[in-house]
Structures are given as structure tokens and as C-alpha cells.
Amino acid sequence: MAAARFQRVLLKLSGEILAGEDGGHGIQESVISQLAGEVAEVHALGVQVGLVLGGGNIFRGLAASARGMDRAGADYMGMLATVINSLAMQHALEKRGCYTRVMSAIEMARVCEPYVRRRAVRHLEKGRIVILAAGTGNPYFTTDTAAALRAVEIGADVILKGTKVDGIYSDDPVRVPDATFFPRLDYMDILSRGLKVMDSTAISLCMDNRIPLVVFNVRTPGNLARVVRGEDVGTTVGELPR
User: Fold this and answer.
1) Domains of the chain (ranges plus CATH)?
2) H-helix or E-strand containing 153?
3) pLDDT for the residue numbered 3
4) Cα–Cα distance, 64 to 124 (Å, whole number)
5) Which end of the chain, N or C, is less surrounded by CB atoms within 10 Å?
6) Residues near 25 by beta carbon (within 8 Å), at least 6 away in sequence
7) Cα 19 vs. chain centroid, distance in angstroms?
8) pLDDT tens-place string over residues 190-208
């Protein structure tokens, strides 16, 4: 098996991924088990893994605010949904023998640790998978922005964004079958084209701090390990470390 290209990665998964292919609500056990296996395989290569999970399979703050709910309150509810997903992923990973820590930006000491950057880095150095929950701890910021922020803070080599499509397209390939696939992009390409891969705050954070991004289909078995080993999978944004 080829060696890993990266020493430390930040994996971003949407909450919708955990709900399965039907795009419903809740957590599908078979899906989270498969994802935990993919993460465990990468961890076994000696890669330090940080994880950020969305909460859209349980509650989406932006959608609730569009229906009339107070935006800040709705966003806090969405942050709590990410904690539920993080605890579920922790359970799935520990069933596979991986030492795992959930660290939340909103303190809830009975269920997980508070997020402290230096402690998170220390956990990674000790070989623990660190799941970074509750977004940034602030309303009006997405979990994509939280992933970019945490990647910068922990010194990740790359952000790996697992999606349900093969990378970045000019349009949604599910709705537009002839959408153009982009194997390589620059950060400014995403901003200028208005591509809906991550919000503009997240992309700007990556650009300003030169954190590369790989967007790939996490539903394809083995894809995560292929990306980590440096195979040409998905769409690469920015310059990967050599």
C-alpha cells in the first residue's frame, strides 16, 4: 500500500451524507459505519485526522430562519445538531478501535471536551482522531467556515471535503447532466464563478492561509484513502504539498 501524502488532514462531511442516499433525516447506521471504516483506514496509514461534521440531517439553521425563526437561535440549534452527529461518529470509530475525542466550540462538559486549540493538536499528535463539533460556536457561520478555521488552527496540510458527487462542477450534475467537471481550480475561480462548493468566507480563509482543498465523492468506497495517498481523485483547489 502506498504511503500517505499528508501528515495531518481535516475531513469535512455534511450532515446530509449521514442520512444516506435518500437525502432524508437522521443518521443511517450503515452509512456512518462505512464512513468510520474509511476514516479508520486513513488513520491506520499514520495520518492525523480532524473531522468536522455538518448538522443538516437533523436541523438546518438557515432553512429555519427562512421560515421565520430567529437566525441566531436557529444557528445555535444547528450547532447542537453537529454535536449529535459527532457523538454518533465517535461511537462508530471507537467500535473500530480508534481512539477518538469530540471537542465542542460550545461547552458541554458531560458529553465532550471544550475546544482548545493546543489540546486538539496534542490529541492529534497522540494519534487520536479529533471530531470538532458545534461549528465556530458563533451564529451566522457555516460548518464549512468552521472546517476552514479549524484547519488553519490545527495546521492541517489539506481540507478534504467529502460530497455525494465526484468533485466540483459548473452546476449541480444531478440536475444538469452535462455540467462541466473541473479537475483543478484556483480559489478565485470558485469565488468569481460563484461555484457552490463552500461559502465565500470558507474559501477566503483557505486562500488567505494557503490551505489546499480536495473535493471528492466520499460515497465511493476507498476514495478517501486514494485522496490521502495522493491519487488523482476529485477536484483540487490550490497547491497540494509535495
Assistant:
1) 8-237 (3.40.1160.10)
2) helix 143-154
3) 87
4) 35
5) C
6) 19, 57, 58
7) 15
8) 999 999 899 999 999 999 9
